[in-house]
Every structure is written in structure tokens, then in C-alpha cells.
Amino acid sequence: MKSKKTALAQGFIRCHDCGRLSKQPDKNRLCPLCGGRLHPRLPNSFQRTAALLLSAFCLYIPANIFPIMTVTRLGVGEPHTIIGGIIALINGNMVPIALLVLVASILVPLLKLLGISLLLLNVHYRWQTHAKKWTIMYRIIAFVGRWSMLDIFMISILVSLVDMGSVAQVIAGPAATAFAAVVVLTMLAAKNFDPRLIWDNQR
Amino acid sequence: MNQIDFTACPECDLLLNPAVPVVGDKAHCPRCGYLLQRPRKQSIERTFALSIAGLILIFPANLMPLVGIKILGGAKDGTLWSGVVALFEEHLWGVAVLVFLSSILFPLLNIILSLLISAHLYFKKPSRHLAHWMRWLQHMDEWAMLEVYMLGIIVACVKLASTSELKFGFGLYAFVALLIVTGMLASSLDKVLFWRQIGQLRK
User: Fold this and answer.
1) For A51-90, how does the pLDDT look when each residue is reduced to its tens digit (9 = 90+)?
2) How far are the Cα atoms of A64, A85, A101, A170, A190 from residue A60, in angstroms, in the given order?
3) C-alpha distances out from residue A116 to A125, A134, A138, Å
């Protein structure tokens, strides 16, 4: 049941890009102000978000199992996974930075995956409670996503700086690609999720 | 074109009378709390000025060395571009493209588009591309990640500080300045006002 208060229930469609309201048109009309295609809700929002989320879940496994970089010192190579890198930081008495990396590259991706799953469950089972809190959670997920790129940027800097042949070298590992893909896929999943679906289900 | 005197909340689709907040005020959606508009003093003028400043700063930030390193006699300088090249040389082309887009291309396009749009609005010069530029700017916004890159630089420096000698280049100062300018740019750009002005120029 849709509340009468929403723009859609009153026969208006809000343009995704410029925010202009238009009278509910025939299919595939364009916004008169910005030329964007008008949809009452993001098209196939649930399916697209679910597909992107599932791919992100799959890639999260190799991202954590394989080494994200190999540090070579005086000819001795030492591969690091994401967690291994954090443990190395703790052992080197750099706990604040270790916490920062822990939050950015373990907690944020994991909480994002779980959070988007919960949002999808919410929409699918039409949960009736706390719509405002769910919307706030969506906002947090959409905001923090980009900060997971921290690890990728750090590797890019280390790889370019520490390149002294056999003396000292940092080589990026296969997990870097998987991790970068997880970050991008979860960002796209959050972007494709339409929070108005939560409100549409409220009685 | 028949004018519609309503707006709708982008996150819960509540039909609203358009709020007209004054500078310093914020307009929130009464149902879900979404920040609808936050007007800024001289939004167009400031965006114009800041995007010129950003366009000047982006050259030293990209071309001059950010951080230099010395390990056992070997020395190396790192720029934004050298990080991308190093990833490319290790055949991580996916990660390399992602780093290139989010640290070099999107920030640059972001500033150029802000400059183009605010210059047209400032001089009240209509252009049929304005709406397209504004749409691209909105979609690109979250993929420009200079502030995350800064955090990456900090973490990389802390990791390297114990084993090698670090030297901060002039590029890093330009990069920090660019970061501040793009942050101010993002907060001074009032999207609701910009779209309204674009719509008025059209008439």
C-alpha cells in the first residue's frame, strides 16, 4: 500500500539527475529540464543491487586469502595478505595506523556487504519498522564506501616508491585486483539501491 | 511547459512544497531527514573562483614529486602518475586504471566541469550543454577520491618511515592545497540553485 503523500502516488516523477518533478509520462520520456530519462524508481534497482552485491561477496574471498603485496628486503620476499599487513603494523608499534587500515580495509567492506544485504532483505520482506533508521544506514553505507580505496592507493604509492631491485622492492599481489573490484562493486551496489523502495513498503 | 510547484525528497519521495532556506539555514526532509538544500553565500561566484584555483593547483600536484625516498643509497621520487605506471608495469592494469581515474582524471574533469558550469552561470551565457555537464558532474562526484589518496600517502609514509629516509616534495604541498580547494568547491556548489539557474537560462 502506498501512502498518498509520495510524489509517485500523486502522479509525479522526480528526475534522478536534476530533481525536477514531471507529470507521470508515457514510458521512456525524457526530463524537460536536463534531458535525463525519467523513471519513477531506479530501474531494476533490487535486481541490479543484488547482482552487484553477490559478485562483491564472491570477490571478497580471494581479496582476503591471496597476498595483497610482497615486500622484498635484501632478496628475501615476504608476502602480506590484508590481515597480515595489519598484524605487521601492530608488531611495528604502529597501532593507530593499524586501526585505520583495519577500519578502512576490513570493517568497512564487511559492514557494507552485510548492510546492503540487510537493506535488500528489508525491501524484499517489506519490513515495517524504523524506515528512517534504515534510510540513515543507507546514507552511511553510501558515504563510507570510497574510503576503502585507502589500501589500493597505499599500495600504488609503495609500489612506485620502493623499487630498488634486490635491495628493497614492493610488488602488488593478485588480491589487489580482487579488493579493488570489491570496493567498486559495493559502491555501484549502493548507487543502484533506491532508498525510496523502503518507504514505498510502509503502510 | 507547465510549471509544477512541488518538489519531492530524493530518498523517500515525499511530496513537498519547495523550501526556500536562507543562507546559513538547512532544509531537511520532514519524513526521512534528507538534507534537501543548504544554500551558500555567493555560491556561483565562489564555485567559479575556487575552480580556477583548483585548475591552477592541479598541475603542480600532478607533475611535481609528492614524496621522495632514500633506502641504502638508492633514491626515488613518487608522483601521482608514477604510482599508476608502477601498477601498470606489474600487469595490474585494472587497478592501475582505477587509480588513474580516481586520483587524476576524475578530479581534473570535476574541476573543469565546475569551471565551465559556474562560468556560464556567472556570465549568464546560455549553453545547450549546461544540463549535460551538470549531470556528468553529479555522477562523477563520488569517484574523485583525492582525500582518500591523501590518507593513503599518510599510511604509506608511516610504513616507510622506520626503514628509510623520507623527503616531502613541493607537489605534496600543492596536493594538500588542491585537497582543501576541492573540499571547499564541493561545499560551495549548491546543486538546487545551479539547476534552477540552468532552468532559467534555458527560457
Assistant:
1) 999 999 999 999 999 998 888 877 777 888 888 888 888 8
2) 6, 17, 16, 23, 16
3) 14, 10, 8
**CB-count exposure of residue B31 (10 Å: 0-12, 13-18, 19+):** buried
Distance from CA of A106 to the nearest CA of B (A): 15
Q: From its phi and psi, is residue B33 left (phi > 0), alpha (psi between -120 and 50) or beta?
A: left
* Closest residue to B32, CB basis, from A8, A132, A153: A132
Contact (CB, 8 A) for B153 and B79: no
Q: Is the pLDDT assigned to residue B174 strictly greater than 50?
A: yes
pLDDT tier, A2 (very low <50, low <70, confident <90, very high otherwise): very low
Given an 8 Å threshold on Cβ–Cβ distance, is B195 in contact with A34?
A: yes
Alpha helices in B32-163, H assignment, sequence order: 43-63, 80-89, 93-100, 106-122, 130-140, 146-161
* CA distances (Å), origin A30, targets A58, A192, B196, B203: 37, 20, 18, 18
- The pLDDT tens digits for B64-80 are 999 988 877 778 888 89
Q: Which residues, 6 or more positions from A171, have their beta carbon under 8 angstroms from its beta carbon? A: A69, A70, A72, A159, B90
Alpha-carbon distance of A31 to A114, in angstroms, equals 35
Give the DSSP letter of residue B32: T
How many CB atoms lie under 10 A from the CB of residue B178? 25
Q: Helix, strand, or coil here: B160?
A: helix
Q: Measure B118 CA to nearest chain A CA, in Å.
A: 16
- The complex scores an ipTM of 0.88
CA–CA distance, A164 with B102 (Å, rounded to integer): 27
A:69-88 residues touching chain B, CB 8 A cutoff: none
- C-alpha to C-alpha distance for B11 and B29, rounded to whole angstroms: 9
> Is residue A181 within 8 Å of residue B88, measured between CB atoms?
no
Q: Which residues of A touch B12 (CB under 8 A)?
A: 6, 131, 135, 195-196, 198-199
Residue B55, amino acid: L
* Domain ranges across chain B: 1-39, 43-202
Q: A147-201 pLDDT, tens per residue?
A: 989 999 999 999 988 887 777 788 888 899 999 999 999 999 999 999 998 888 8
